[in-house]
Amino acid sequence: MRKIIDPAPEIWAELAKRPTKNLEDLEPGILETFKLVQEQGDNALLQLADKYDGVKLSSLVASTEEIAAAESGVSQELKEAILQAYSNIQLFHTQQAEPVKQVETMFGVTCWRKSVPIEKVGLYIPGGTAPLFSTLLMLGVPARIAGCQELVLCTPPSKDGNIHPAILYTASLLGVSRIIKAGGAQAIAAMAFGTESVPPVYKIFGPGNQYVTVAKQLVSKAGVAIDLPAGPSEVLVMADETANPAFVAADLLSQAEHGPDSQVVLLASSEAVLAQVEQELEAQLKVLPRKEFAAKALNNSLGIVLGGVEEMLRFSNLYAPEHLILSVSDFEQLLDGITNAGSVFLGHYSPESAGDYASGTNHTLPTNGYARAYSGVSLDSFVKKITFQYITREGLQNIGQTIETMAEAEGLEAHKNAVSIRLNELNRV
Amino acid sequence: MRKIIDPAPEIWAELAKRPTKNLEDLEPGILETFKLVQEQGDNALLQLADKYDGVKLSSLVASTEEIAAAESGVSQELKEAILQAYSNIQLFHTQQAEPVKQVETMFGVTCWRKSVPIEKVGLYIPGGTAPLFSTLLMLGVPARIAGCQELVLCTPPSKDGNIHPAILYTASLLGVSRIIKAGGAQAIAAMAFGTESVPPVYKIFGPGNQYVTVAKQLVSKAGVAIDLPAGPSEVLVMADETANPAFVAADLLSQAEHGPDSQVVLLASSEAVLAQVEQELEAQLKVLPRKEFAAKALNNSLGIVLGGVEEMLRFSNLYAPEHLILSVSDFEQLLDGITNAGSVFLGHYSPESAGDYASGTNHTLPTNGYARAYSGVSLDSFVKKITFQYITREGLQNIGQTIETMAEAEGLEAHKNAVSIRLNELNRV
User: Fold this and answer.
1) B323 is an active site residue
2) Is residue B103 left, alpha or beta, with left meaning phi > 0 and alpha meaning psi from -120 to 50?
3) What DSSP character marks residue A61?
4) pLDDT of residue B129
5) Contacts of A51 (CB under 8 A, 6+ apart)
6) Cα–Cα distances in angstroms (integers) from residue A375 to residues A89, A291, A379, B113, in the given order
7) Average pLDDT over residues A388-397
8) Using one digit for the tens of pLDDT, what is the confidence trace for A343-369?
9) What distance in Å separates residue B8's CA from the closest CA in chain A?
10) Complete DSSP assignment for B239-284
11) pLDDT of B292
12) Contact A301, A264 (CB under 8 A)
């Protein structure tokens, strides 16, 4: 952990910077993959599963038998935990539904907007070191609440051609329409352009490695929407004298274990607090299974001593963390001052893992400072809000001149005429 | 107008396609512009104003004197129209504010989300043939309601170094922090990266030519958010026997006059309706000032006869128009079936121009089929929705095991430990 005591405000912006990674070199290779998928469809996905995942698949689509069998591959305890998380996520996201409100902006001019589900969405769940069924919940539950008709899931198969039972079980709970054994840029291409087995979708969600990240960027240029620009996961913890150093260390480590490029920032109210947390970090790190990842991430992490909570808040807003943990006594006083953050955890008993899994909030959040302008995934991410307007004859007589005057001033006579021609008819009657 | 009578469903997808334009060739030149702006700041903007706008500016920033003088350059009638539109847009967008709702997902586990303004936003208003003060209203009013602190406006100067008084007047109403005389890709670069005169912003809004479009795509890859991917404006009108052919023709022309690449689609319930509208188009076109634009757009437009409203609706959903006008008798019956559209205009007295200027709905809408996954600009576009969670000791005891079980199943021991270490302490007490 890089330690900085009371840094001068002039260097804060530098401290708040993330390491930049230029991924443009990956683009040509990924565009080749796109071409292959567009030209050869399923066959391309089968070839690339062989090449990258080391498996000769007999079918790209998980069969109903495989899905049914997964049920017995998940312990009763895990099923109950998944159902509890499902219920909490559902409860929280259901509250995000916007009721239709009609607004009569002038007499006879009525406007409203209505949330309409995105019909077809694609969910990408990476393979690798951890089966992220929690991410599938975080994406699938709001998709279901929204009413998306088609949910396509792509996830890379293991070397024996299977998908982890917890992923299949969760997908089955969510009523995923189609589960495809495909990973990487080829999976993103398949969902964007479609193949024989993969229906093309309108929006693609989910985390992934740098190939997936770049592939999502590229399909978004081609008109397929994506959830969020991606970057390594982050936490910023503010800790004062009331914080329990062991809890703080555990929270920092839960971020650090994601991978060596995880961003971990501690703002401590004093050198003593910083030292206590460091001591705990060392002790807890030793017994972690993923200690290599965590140790690397900690090497790049920041421990900054800042005198007051006001200063901490200012630094945090500048940094715009994905996760913000307020392990301080007076967190309520800080709430109104938080301008940039993805999700915020209040007090000493709200660890980030609660939001990662089960409290109900979404864990797909803006990283890399994107919290300055982006929200995390929510019910909103799975709907379009379509506006409607109904103008009566009288309404058009009320608003007509305003429109005519503005259209004329913009030099758009046909816009004006669409009103004038109607007003003329009304005056004639 | 290309006429198609009862097309077979197999060719619908082809009919619904927009012309594709490959803008990638523009990227290298635009990246050069970015580099110039990043290296030379204001000086680059001044050079490029000379080169592209043909003006040697003494200052990039509109002075308070210029802004004050604009007041007298706008007629009383236009001021009143702008104020009326402002009021309607404000009324409609204020209703989009989301109240904070606390949800206790389990006893002791409380979650909520809060809309927080994006602190700094940039608004781009193109120059060219029409001074689009209406677009400035559509972006500036929700930005103000959201509470964005810094509103930066970039718009290209005329050859005499001025900005149109209606733009300055509207900007002044909106309390725009800084008005910059800059257009094109260089304006987008200035707002993304900052110069001596232009503060860098977190999100950039507004329409523009293909250079602006590509520049927005490129800065969004670099982490600055943008409003929407852009494309030529569009309208789809459904007309049955109850429609007034003159009104329908006027609506089609108001779209066509935007430019030669405007997309205009008419779905008519019979060949007779189509023929009547065509006749009206011809008559009205003759007297339009922008008839060259409109005629070109009409050449590329589609007039499709489809027997029933159900079929029309299905085609419209496939096309996903930016603007959808229902000039049919039973439009109320269609509302629930609309799945893809930007903004919808109901009945015979709700022309698109109403929404373009003054009804209250936003006119920055998804084009090019993006309405399948994107919403138009709204109050939401100017805020981030930050989630919060507060878990009590008892709450953590309720939810703890769920988190531990899930974290362990995902192989993330440190995530589990952040809960266990707290539960252990609670059990010890």
Assistant:
1) yes
2) beta
3) B
4) 66
5) none
6) 17, 31, 11, 10
7) 98
8) 999 999 999 999 999 999 999 999 999
9) 22
10) E-TTS-HHHHHHHHHHHHTT-TT-EEEEEESSHHHHHHHHHHHHHH
11) 83
12) yes
Low-confidence ranges of chain B (pLDDT < 70): 128-129
Decide if A250 and B417 are in contact by the 8 Å CB cutoff.
yes
For residue A363, say whether it is annotated as part of any ligand binding site.
Answer: no
Is A322 marked active-site?
Answer: yes
Is any Cβ of chain B less than 8 angstroms from the Cβ of A385? yes
* Calpha distance A68→A82 (Å, rounded): 17
B 58-87: CB under 8 A from A: 77-78, 80-82, 84-85, 87
Q: Which residues of B touch A247 (CB under 8 A)?
A: 418, 421-422, 425
Contact A269, A309 (CB under 8 A): yes
Strand ranges for B71-166 from DSSP E: 103-106, 109-117, 120-124, 150-155
Which residue carries 């634009």 as its tokens? B293
Measured in angstroms, the CA of A140 and the nearest CA of chain B are apart by: 16
Task: Kindly report the average pLDDT of chain A as a whole number.
Answer: 95
CB contact under 8 A, A246 and B393: no
Residue in B173, B226, B224, B165 with CA at minimum distance from that of residue B200: B224
Pick from B280, B330, B390, B396 the residue to mutate for testing the A interface (most A CBs within 10 Å). Answer: B390
Q: Give the count of beta carbons closer than 10 Å to the beta carbon of residue A29.
A: 12
Residue at token pair 């050198």:
A271
Nearest to B246 among A87, A355, A421 (CB): A421
**Phi, psi for residue A34 in degrees, rounded to 5:** -55, -45
A209 in a labelled binding site: yes
Count the residues in chain B: 429
3-state secondary structure A107-152: CCEEEEEEEEECCEEEEECCCCCCCCHHHHHHHHHHHHHHCCCEEE
**Chain A residues within an 8 Å CB radius of B87:** 105
- Sign, CA torsion A104/A105/A110/A114: negative
Shortest CB distance from A360 goes to which of B103, B350, B356? B103
Contacts of B343 in chain A (CB under 8 A): 386-389
Tell me if B81 and A391 make a contact (CB, 8 A cut-off).
no
d(CA A126, CA A28): 22
Active-site hit among B234, B322, B352, B404: B322
Measured between CB atoms, which of B348, B360, B380 is closest to A380? B380
The sheet carrying B234-239 orders its strands as: A103-106, A109-117, A383-391, B343-346, B323-327, B234-239, B263-268, B302-305, B2-5
Partner B contacted by A350 (CB < 8 A)? yes
Query: What are B368's two structure tokens?
Result: 């090019």
Distance, CA of A311 to CA of A316 (rounded, Å): 9
Measured between alpha carbons, how far is B371 from B358 in angstroms, rounded to an integer?
A: 22
pTM of the model: 0.97
DSSP B391-409: E-HHHHHHHHHHHHHHHHH
Angle subtended at Cα B366 by Cα B139 and Cα B364, rounded to the nearest 5 degrees:
20
A129: pLDDT confidence band, cut at 50, 70 and 90? low
The whole-number average pLDDT for the span A111-115 is: 98
Amino acid code (one letter) for B291: K
List pLDDT tens digits, range A291-304. 887 888 888 899 99
Which residues, 6 or more positions from B25, have their beta carbon under 8 angstroms from its beta carbon?
A: none
Q: List pLDDT tens digits, range A254-272.
A: 999 888 888 999 999 999 9
DSSP line for A201-245: -SEEE----HHHHHHHHHHHHTT-EES------EEEEEE-TTS-H
Q: Which two tokens stand for residue A99?
A: 């009721």
Domains and CATH numbers, chain B: 2-15+232-360 (3.40.50.1980), 23-100+117-226 (3.40.50.1980), 392-428 (1.20.5.1300)
